[in-house]
Design brief:
Bound molecules: zinc ion
Order of helices and strands: HEEHHEHEEEHEEH
Low-confidence stretches: none
Distance between the termini: 23 Å
Number of strands: 8
Strand content: 25-35%
Strand order of the largest sheet: 5-4-3-6-7-8
Mean pLDDT: 93
Largest sheet: 6 strands, mixed
Number of helices: 6
Length: 193
């Protein structure tokens, strides 16, 4: 995948999903990059193409079901499942816990791939991984379109497969290099990822 990395990043940039500059995140921290994956996934042809590239890594894994956390993971899960000829289900929060609703269920021994759009700390993806394992499913892998972990271990107990890795450090305002350069601070429209 490495040789396509910049080309794939450009598709995120062209869709306005990856902005570079000086951004105020909802956490109050500042970052030179802002990622809103939904802006690339709003284009079904792009979503299908990017997710099918991610799915290739699992073509021989006998994946029966792709499980994703709502809301961010739903489109990715659907498109990865399409590429693998698998079923797509999603988990959503109920009283703070990731839960399978809507009649979705996993079978003992079912080969499940857990996917997410963006992994930063990995919290939601880890929760659906644990949900699948608790249901007795065999989690074959965890994957995301974008790895934003910056090399930190999200604690999946297995490698995270990602289509692209985006280095997007965040800073407290006092330590922000863009502030020091006097670049104007931009607050992006909605919740940062
Ligand atoms: Zn700043």
């Amino acid at each position: 995948m490495a040789e396509h990395h910049e080309a794939i990043l450009n598709r995120f940039r062209e869709a306005g999903a990856l902005l570079e500059g000086h951004f105020l995140l909802t956490s109050g921290r500042h970052s030179p990059a802002y990622l809103q994956c939904a802006r690339v996934l709003q284009h079904p042809d792009l979503a299908e193409d990017l997710c099918s590239r991610l799915a290739r890594a699992f073509a021989d894994e006998g994946v029966e079901t792709v499980l994703a956390p709502a809301i961010g993971g739903i489109v990715v899960g659907h498109e990865v499942a399409r590429a693998l000829g698998a079923r797509a289900v999603f988990a959503e929060r109920e009283k703070g816990r990731m839960t399978l609703r809507r009649g979705f269920a996993l079978r003992d021994g079912e080969r499940v791939l857990c996917v997410e759009d963006v992994v930063t700390t990995g919290g939601s993806l880890k929760e659906v991984q644990q949900l699948a394992q608790a249901a007795g499913a065999d989690v074959v892998a965890v994957a995301a379109l974008v790895d934003r972990t910056g090399g930190a271990d999200p604690g999946f107990g297995m490698p995270l497969t990602a289509l692209v890795r985006i280095e997007a450090p965040t800073y407290v305002p006092e330590d922000c290099p863009q502030c020091r350069q006097g670049l104007p601070l931009v607050k992006p429209g909605s919740r940062d990822i």
